[in-house]
Amino acid sequence: MVGGYADIPKPIRSGLVIIDPQRGTPKQIIVLQFNPDSLQRSIAPQASGADNSSGSSGDRTEALRLKGPAVETWKLTAEIDATDQLDVAAPNGIHPQLAVLEMLVSPSSASLRQLEALAARGTLEVTPVEAPLTLFTWGNKRVVPVRLTEFSITEEAFDVDLNPIRAQVDITLRVLTVSDLPVTNRGYELYLAYLAQKERLAGPAATGRLSALGLSGSGLGGV
């Protein structure tokens, strides 16, 4: 105890983990400097009987069927600030941190040169560059495979060389499910593990009583 206060445990940071496609081991770990103040999550069910174009239901016998996992989207704002790390030399400001994030949504220069060479040799079908498997972590109960679908940077302060030293990064992530990934992809099992974690958390949730809803009896047909 120091100054009358008990030791406060160090908070867990959220972040992104890039997985090596061959070994399945972490290739790069991006720890967010500050945990975002909020995490917005939207979950859209994949209903078998729904007609998404008109909003009306289709076959009535399919109304309660789910054709796959829900489409889950996460939005967050990450803050990066070089002034919080004054004891670390930063001749490039926060360019390195921003570049790491930006490379998550862009092929490398080497892969682009390779595609150009294949096209120059007359290759009829050039396979698009595959992005590495990316995991987003928010504590040990939320580790999910994701795809970055939107990414915007607001640079807010600069040093004398115009290197950014403070920025806000708005990130939108789409959770990749078993509907998106082949069985052989390591993200397939990681999503199932994430779903199983949800099921375990839902298990001990308290069950309410019908009386709290102004209802009585085990059958609701006569309400």
How would you characterize this protein structure?
Pfam families: CIS_tube. Residues 43-64 are annotated as: Disordered. Residues 25-174 form the Contractile injection system tube protein N-terminal domain. With 223 residues, the protein is of the alpha+beta class. It has one domain. It contains three helices and seven strands. It has helices at 95-102, 109-120, 186-202, and strands at 15-19, 26-31, 40-47, 66-81, 133-137, 143-158, 164-175. Strands 2-1-5-6-7-4-3 form a seven-stranded antiparallel β-sheet. A hairpin with a 5-residue loop joins strand 6 and strand 7 (164-175).
How many domains?
Answer: 1
The strand count comes to 7
Radius of gyration: 23 Å
Overall form: globular
N to C succession of SSEs: EEEEHHEEEH
Low-confidence stretches: none
Largest sheet: 7 strands, antiparallel
Query: Which structural class should the secondary elements be placed in?
Result: alpha+beta
- Read across the widest sheet, the strand sequence of neighbours is 2-1-5-6-7-4-3
- How many H/I helical runs? 3
Overall pLDDT = 85
Separation, N- and C-terminal Cα atoms: 60 Å
**Portion in strands:** 25-35%
InterPro entries: CIS_tube_prot_N (IPR045361)
Domain Contractile injection system tube protein N-terminal: 25-174
Protein name: Contractile injection system tube protein N-terminal domain-containing protein
Biased composition (Low complexity): 47-58
